[in-house]
Structures are given as C-alpha cells and as structure tokens.
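Task: fold both queries, return tokens.
Query 1:
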Amino acid sequence: MQALTPEESSAVQSHVDGCADCRRELAEQTGDLSVLALSVEQQPLPAGSRERFLARVAAEPRAAATPQLSVAPGPSRRRIMPVLLPWAACAAMLAVAAYLGVKNSTLEQTLNTDRAQIATLAAQAARAQSVLDTLTAPSAQRATLTAGKPVAAPTGHTTYVPERGALIFVANHLQQVPASKTYELWIIPANGSAPIPAGTFRPDANGTASVILPPLPQGVPAKAFGVTIENEGGADKPTMPIVLSGE
C-alpha cells in the first residue's frame, strides 16, 4: 500500500532479504492481493487517506521498537495491519457487488414480467379492435346458416267411399322400416266400433307407397284414418303409436 516511510521500507526490505519465511509469506500475500485486486474496479486512494492511515498506525501501541523488525522472526502488529486492511476493503466491495447483483436480477425479472403482461394486453386489444372492425365494416357480407334443406314430413292422402267400401290411399316421404316390419292402414268407424284394418304396405326407395281398393265392408262411415307400424303380415288391432292420422 506504499504506507511506509523510506526508512521503514528499507528496514523491512533488509529483514525480508535475510528471512526465508518472511519472503515466502510476502510472496503469497502479494500474489493473493494482486489476483483479488484484478477482480474489482481500480479506484485511486481518496485525498488524505495516506496521511490518515499513517496517523492511525502511529497511534497504535507498539510492543517493540521499529528497529527490532530486522531481527524479529514473526510478523508484528504493524505488519499485520497493512495486510488486513486491503482484505477488509475488498471483502466490503465484494459484498456490495453481490448485493447489487441480486438487486439487479430481481429488477430484471420484474421488468420481464411487466413486459409480458403489456404484450398480452396489447394483443388482446388488437384482437378486440379487429372483431369490432369486422362486425361494423360497410362491405361485410352477412348470411344465416341452417342445417340444409329440411326433410319433408311423411304424408298420406285417403279417398274413401263408405257405401261401396272403396278406398284409395297414397303416402309420400315415408321412412323405411326393417324387413320384419310393415306399415298398416286403419279405418276408425264413426260409430265408435273397433278400428278396421285397411291393408299393409311398404314404401319404395323414394318413400312412396299406396293401398288401392283393399277388401273392406260396405256401409261403414269413417270418423278418421290412421297408420301404424306392425309386424310383417299385419295385425288385427293397431299397435301404438299411430305414425300418421287424419279425420
């Protein structure tokens, strides 16, 4: 640290020249201090620091006179102080550097989080604006979509002459039934008697079917007509539900 007077420096150098232990210790300390000094930013000594340091050294109580340095085998308190002070200063600087590093890392993480949130909000705002522009654009083409052309409902048309017992029935848009099933037409008499079977039928590929002049009793006025699904061959009385009906 260049803190010794020329006389003191000469005395120390004279002792070091004749003491192998001190030369080895001084070499190790000098090497360590050099490496540590290179790890921090170099700063000049503050004004007056050398004078203040010398004053503090002079105020320290001495166990032995200065000339005894040339014969003392071990380091004195005066030798230890210049060695410890640089280490303490370097340790303090390292502690400050570590604190600043942690603080900088925390601030950087916070800044990155804020940037991500700002980017998310900006993207959401841009998308909302695009939606609004699309909905309000004068040149926008608008259309209502449906499930396609609706399937026509099954219908049946009956012409019946009671006094002759003559009947013609034509149906359209009927759904197909299994091979073991068949449609059956019924006459519901006006006098409240049991329904009269008026013939079985199966629709073609287009859903069309007909019953033409089935054998029926004469003179039975009809209140209504109905169609049910029965087992193949037909039934004596209708099985619910009635899939087509009309008065």
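Query 1 returned. Query 2:
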Amino acid sequence: MIKYAGLAFLLSAAFAGGAYAQPYEVDSQKSSITFSGVHAGNGFSGVFKTWQAEVDFDPEDLAGSTIRTTIQTTTAHTGNKMYDGTLPTPDWFDVKNHPEAIFESQTIAHKEGDVYTVDGILTIREQAVPVSFDVLLPEDDLAKGQIETAFSIELDRLAFDIGKKSDAAAEWVSQNIGLEVKLHASRK
C-alpha cells in the first residue's frame, strides 16, 4: 500500500503545476537543414534531405524541455557531382560507418525577450562536440502552439574529423561550415 501511495504522490507532484514540456510535431515540408561553405574560393551550399527532430518545449518548464535531432548524413546533397561524390567518402562524412549525425540538447535557457539559448552536443563521426545557439521563439506563436523559427550555427569541420586527412590546413575547403535550420512545428 505504501508503494502505491508513494507512486500516486510522485505522479500528482509531477503534474500538479500543470507546466511540463510539450511535444511538438515538425512539419517536414516547411522545415530544412542546409549547410554552406567555400571550396577553392567558391561558395557552395547543400541540404540534408532526410532528418527527424523531437522537440519538447515549454517556456514554463525549460528544465524539462529538450531537442533531439537525427540527420541522415547519407542524404547530404549539393547538386554538384564532385561534392556529392566526395561527401559520403571515408575522409568526409564516412556514411558507411557513420550514417547519422545526432544533436541532443543539454540545457535550454531564457536569454532575453523571446530569445532562448540552446546548449547541446552534436555528434558526427563519433566526435561529440559542444555547440550553442540562440533561437527566437515569439511568445505569441508559442501561445498558439506553433514554432516558426530559423537559426544558424557555425561548425568547425575539423573538430568532427571531416576532411582532416585530405585538407587539414583548410586550403581547399573552409574550416568553418555554416549550418542553417528552419523549423516549423505544431504542438501535438
């Protein structure tokens, strides 16, 4: 009897405040993850065609809010035959051994106004690197159960061992690669 009473207490305490992170469903038609950089003095850009995101967010329960994104590196596409042939190779994404890149948030904190700071770990090629970015989440959108935002991150490709053997000095491909995320999601 005590065991069940304790369980009931824990459950009631967990839901008593009414504030807990809310799951959102990502609209894949309106959302995207793109990347850009410079090769031999020329800019390039591409897109990851397949990825999934699990977003649980409540501004009243930031400690319980989380983001987890899984990107299929096998779907990186630039439209340039040479780049698209190089990206899957062992020195770059090594898609045979590392078909996914994973981002997991560690903390989400209110910065100011409608801006939140997300700190987490991005793992590519088994290299887990801390990343931090700010995201704009307007209070009016959240009240309607909507997330419509875009944000950018600059990544050091060498920290993930991407192109480290063939271009460790970043003579051909820029060391910093831009990652831009457009996210449209609705509360479930």
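Both queries returned. Flag for query 2: The longest helix spans residues 2-16.
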